[in-house]
């Protein structure tokens, strides 16, 4: 019997795709759910799996062909024995995995967030046969937008790793199995490969990222509990981040296993200098970094992006903050920062210039009567933009508390997709790194982004007199397809007025 393989649903508003590559040829045997071809759309790339076991009898849509949802891709002739080849490796590995005579608990890819269906296995924090405790991180997953840790659902021994580092896994796919009754080894089963590696290559990652340079909050908490100097722990996360697993490995004497080099291609262009570091290293981009790069470039290619500038005298905000910051922190439990003033000032300006809070969707303009402000945050894994929702209804303290909460989750790599999607406008603060002036890139599909910069004392003229004031340059990048120059300038002037006279924010003027 011939089974037809059709183009699956491709997502909201996506109606066609291009056949990228056939993973099987006519006459090949296929197993149920085995990938047989790849489809590419303008938003995602996805694999099409076999719906039955058998033989691929006909390929209808060749590579490079454009196909619509529901179109016929191929036909499979059902037959026995086709599933055996795909199942054999798994069965072989299952026999080799330690079972300890107990029941095996499967670890699957967890929910990754709205519209995210696959991830890349970044790093295994545990090796096969190694002991794990319940809720202990055992591996790291990377998606297009977030990096997250997968924790052990039970205590026991890691019996089998089903998805190796670098593998692309779909939602619900099997990552590993844990023997809930086995004890497991104390630590470094992975130490042998690390020891066999050439000395310069093994030491390069540690030298490139100084120990303790970046520490996840969960790692710092465990280090504090165990009395460990976290600066002595070598980080194995992206960019040398010290993870909770690194601290636990250090505590058990298994740091060598924790810092075994990740599967990164390192190409040395010339012999290492006497200091030990190679002249060049080739490090593949993470999935998150690739997505950031693509989204920023797409924004430049799609929007008619333009930037307008102004400057704001921060004297009034600084004075107000200095006057009330201690009382504010004592009452609300959070510091009174500058960001809440900027969020409030932007909400007031967005109400007056609604097109900056809108977006273009196909041939229509979508005006939004809610104000979910994205606050860009730099993390060891890359730039993320968590969203503070309902800013028009939040007080200064509520905004500060939410920014602090989201910032902590961003640094720990625990932001969910819901916390990063749906923003209507973005604020980016390059001033914390010392930036004096820049032109931020739009966070598509939004139509505006405000760039904050460093506060510098400068000489300005007031009433014919030269005075020194703490000044900040502001930059508004906007989509000129929807926002005219007048609207952009008006928006920035309103933000300036609100900050130079913050009482306007209280009185809703």
TrEMBL record:
<keyword id="KW-0808">Transferase</keyword>
<feature type="domain" description="Lipoyl-binding">
    <location>
        <begin position="104"/>
        <end position="179"/>
    </location>
</feature>
<comment type="pathway">
    <text>Amino-acid degradation; L-lysine degradation via saccharopine pathway; glutaryl-CoA from L-lysine: step 6/6.</text>
</comment>
<dbReference type="InterPro" id="IPR011053">
    <property type="entry name" value="Single_hybrid_motif"/>
</dbReference>
<dbReference type="GO" id="GO:0005829">
    <property type="term" value="C:cytosol"/>
</dbReference>
<dbReference type="InterPro" id="IPR001078">
    <property type="entry name" value="2-oxoacid_DH_actylTfrase"/>
</dbReference>
<dbReference type="InterPro" id="IPR003016">
    <property type="entry name" value="2-oxoA_DH_lipoyl-BS"/>
</dbReference>
<dbReference type="InterPro" id="IPR000089">
    <property type="entry name" value="Biotin_lipoyl"/>
</dbReference>
<dbReference type="InterPro" id="IPR036625">
    <property type="entry name" value="E3-bd_dom_sf"/>
</dbReference>
<dbReference type="InterPro" id="IPR006255">
    <property type="entry name" value="SucB"/>
</dbReference>
<dbReference type="InterPro" id="IPR050537">
    <property type="entry name" value="2-oxoacid_dehydrogenase"/>
</dbReference>
<dbReference type="Pfam" id="PF02817">
    <property type="entry name" value="E3_binding"/>
</dbReference>
<dbReference type="Pfam" id="PF00364">
    <property type="entry name" value="Biotin_lipoyl"/>
</dbReference>
<comment type="similarity">
    <text>Belongs to the 2-oxoacid dehydrogenase family.</text>
</comment>
<keyword id="KW-0012">Acyltransferase</keyword>
<protein>
    <recommendedName>
        <fullName>Dihydrolipoyllysine-residue succinyltransferase component of 2-oxoglutarate dehydrogenase complex</fullName>
        <ecNumber>2.3.1.61</ecNumber>
    </recommendedName>
</protein>
<comment type="subunit">
    <text>Forms a 24-polypeptide structural core with octahedral symmetry. Part of the 2-oxoglutarate dehydrogenase (OGDH) complex composed of E1 (2-oxoglutarate dehydrogenase), E2 (dihydrolipoamide succinyltransferase) and E3 (dihydrolipoamide dehydrogenase); the complex contains multiple copies of the three enzymatic components (E1, E2 and E3).</text>
</comment>
<comment type="function">
    <text>E2 component of the 2-oxoglutarate dehydrogenase (OGDH) complex which catalyzes the second step in the conversion of 2-oxoglutarate to succinyl-CoA and CO(2).</text>
</comment>
<dbReference type="Pfam" id="PF00198">
    <property type="entry name" value="2-oxoacid_dh"/>
</dbReference>
<dbReference type="InterPro" id="IPR004167">
    <property type="entry name" value="PSBD"/>
</dbReference>
<dbReference type="InterPro" id="IPR023213">
    <property type="entry name" value="CAT-like_dom_sf"/>
</dbReference>
<keyword id="KW-0816">Tricarboxylic acid cycle</keyword>
<feature type="domain" description="Peripheral subunit-binding (PSBD)">
    <location>
        <begin position="214"/>
        <end position="251"/>
    </location>
</feature>
<keyword id="KW-0450">Lipoyl</keyword>
<feature type="domain" description="Lipoyl-binding">
    <location>
        <begin position="2"/>
        <end position="77"/>
    </location>
</feature>
<dbReference type="GO" id="GO:0033512">
    <property type="term" value="P:L-lysine catabolic process to acetyl-CoA via saccharopine"/>
</dbReference>
<dbReference type="GO" id="GO:0006099">
    <property type="term" value="P:tricarboxylic acid cycle"/>
</dbReference>
<dbReference type="GO" id="GO:0004149">
    <property type="term" value="F:dihydrolipoyllysine-residue succinyltransferase activity"/>
</dbReference>
<dbReference type="GO" id="GO:0045252">
    <property type="term" value="C:oxoglutarate dehydrogenase complex"/>
</dbReference>
């Amino acid at each position: 019997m011939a089974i037809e393989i059709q183009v699956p649903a491709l997502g909201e508003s996506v109606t066609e795709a291009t056949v990228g590559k056939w993973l099987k040829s006519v006459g090949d045997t296929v197993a149920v759910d085995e990938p047989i071809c790849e489809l590419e759309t303008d938003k995602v790339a996805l694999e099409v799996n076999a719906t039955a076991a058998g033989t691929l009898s006909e390929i209808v849509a060749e590579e490079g062909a454009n196909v619509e949802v529901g179109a016929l891709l191929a036909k499979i002739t059902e037959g026995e024995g086709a599933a055996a080849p795909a199942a054999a490796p798994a069965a072989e590995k299952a026999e080799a995995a330690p079972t300890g005579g107990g029941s095996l608990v499967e670890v699957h890819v967890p929910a990754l967030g709205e519209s995210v269906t696959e991830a890349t296995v970044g790093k295994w924090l545990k090796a096969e046969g190694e002991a794990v405790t319940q809720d202990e991180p055992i591996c790291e997953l990377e998606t297009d937008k977030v990096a997250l840790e997968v924790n052990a659902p039970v205590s026991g021994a890691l019996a089998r790793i089903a998805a190796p580092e670098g593998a692309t896994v779909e939602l619900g796919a099997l990552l590993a199995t844990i023997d809930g009754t086995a004890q497991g080894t104390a630590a470094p089963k992975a130490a042998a490969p690390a020891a066999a590696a050439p000395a310069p290559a093994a030491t390069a990652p540690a030298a490139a990222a100084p120990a303790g340079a970046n520490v996840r909050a969960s790692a710092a908490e465990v280090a504090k509990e165990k009395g460990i100097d976290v600066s002595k722990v070598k980080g194995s996360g992206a960019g040398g981040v010290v993870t909770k697993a690194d601290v636990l490995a250090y505590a058990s004497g298994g740091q060598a296993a924790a810092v075994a080099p990740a599967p990164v291609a390192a190409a040395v262009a010339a012999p290492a200098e006497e200091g030990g570091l190679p002249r060049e290293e080739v490090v593949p981009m993470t999935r998150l970094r690739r997505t950031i790069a693509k989204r920023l470039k797409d924004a430049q290619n799609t929007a008619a992006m333009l930037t307008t500038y102004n400057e704001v005298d921060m004297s009034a905000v600084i004075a107000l903050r200095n006057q009330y910051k201690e009382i504010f922190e004592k009452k609300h439990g959070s510091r009174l920062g500058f960001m809440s003033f900027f969020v409030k000032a932007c909400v007031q300006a967005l109400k007056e210039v609604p097109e900056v809070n809108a977006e273009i969707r196909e041939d229509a303009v979508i005006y939004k009567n809610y104000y979910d402000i994205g606050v860009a945050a730099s993390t060891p894994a890359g730039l993320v933009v968590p969203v503070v929702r309902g800013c028009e209804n939040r007080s200064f303290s509520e905004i500060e508390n939410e920014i602090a909460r989201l910032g902590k989750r961003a640094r720990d790599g625990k932001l969910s997709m819901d916390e990063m999607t749906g923003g209507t406008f973005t604020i980016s603060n390059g001033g914390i790194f010392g930036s004096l002036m820049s032109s931020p890139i739009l966070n598509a599909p939004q139509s505006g982004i405000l760039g904050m910069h460093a506060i510098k004392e400068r000489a300005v003229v007031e009433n014919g007199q030269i005075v020194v004031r703490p000044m900040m340059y502001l930059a508004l990048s906007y989509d000129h397809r929807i926002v005219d120059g007048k609207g952009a300038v008006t928006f920035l002037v309103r933000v300036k007025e609100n900050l130079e006279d913050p009482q306007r924010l209280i009185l809703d003027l």
